[in-house]
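hi! just following up on the protien thing from before. the input was this:
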Amino acid sequence: MKFLFCVGLALLAPGLYAQSVPAAPLSLADCRALALSQKQRLTSSGRRQLAAEAARDAAKTNRLPKLDFSSTSYYVRGLGSTLNTQGVTAGVGVTQPIYSGGRIRAQTAIAGLGARVAAEEVQGTRQQLVAEIDQTYWQTVALGDQVKLAEGNRTQLLALERDLNNKFKAGLGYKADWLRAQVQLRDAETRLLRTRDDQRLSLLVLRQLIGRPAGDSLRLAASIEGEFPVVSAADYAQRALTQRPDLRRLTLNNQADSLQIDVARSARRPQVNASVNALYLQQKPGFLLPDRNYAPAYALVSVNLPLVHWKENRLLESQRRYQAQASQADLAEARQQVELEVNRDLLRLNQAARRIELQTLTVAQAQENLRLNDNRFKAGLLSLVDLLEAQTLSQRAAADLVDAKAEYRIAEAALTQATGENF
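and the predicted 3d structure came back as:
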């Protein structure tokens, strides 16, 4: 009996230990990996890429010979005994395009560009998803810090309110000071509730992005730590022009529009095709058609030359040319927008870095100011209004520092996306 108890305890021990040890907090890299492995929009863009690759492979077969089989059976009655007959034919034919005016070559190239466009779309979707993850992750961590600050401020005010209440009951303080402290305490509790609600909402969004159920517990980093340096301009704009998936996609689309001009131009050129066919005919006798089997074979070369189409093909060619010019203009405008976006994100990042530097000094000064005012208030040399103002300044400075750090991380992720860097 004792042996069975020991065995059962040994089997249950790992599970009990796993339940007692909390799960490790999710890092930013963990959230990225979870989002990239489960997000539905990546699946849809991946399927579109596979469809484009299949279309590319199908276009390559247009220049290859085609082998076809056909069979026909006929039965003729009611036209007189001289025409009554029946039979069956079977044939095999091989068709090979010889010259298409460049149409097949251009269509094959367009299909290849379509596959590359789909691949760039997948990459762009990945970068967009990772940018959303980064922004939501740092917002959630920052809100966690804000909750801690709000809880600390409430604890401070609660202790002050209790002290003022005791003084008022002992006849050593004023009721107005106690009521003022209560008002400040209720305001702090309201801000704490609002911050907690924002944190819950941000956690819900993050769970949805990484594929976790709504009721699942989620632990993140305790706070926003690390270095927050000022970044030089360097070659961010040039890297964005060569690495951005959306710019590469527009470039490929412009090349495809240029090839569409060749497709339209090919309609004005001759089309040459060759075919080789073999037939087998088995026929039952009739008065004019004897009982006989045939097995003829023949080769054909067909030439189709457009003569009068009332400028239809020329107008189609002009249409494709204008479309290519429009896509070229769109590409030039997109390049300008990307340069502007990179400069804006770089400025935003450096602003956040300088703001962190200033807010760090502000927090240290506000805390020292609060310490001095608290000592003076306890010594009876400072009014309650000044003490509450010092507490508000200290809490606001700490909250602004957290916002600045979150802004830096979000701007850092935005700059990475703007330059088209791979995550």
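The radius of gyration is 39 Å.
The longest strand covers residues 85-99.
cheers
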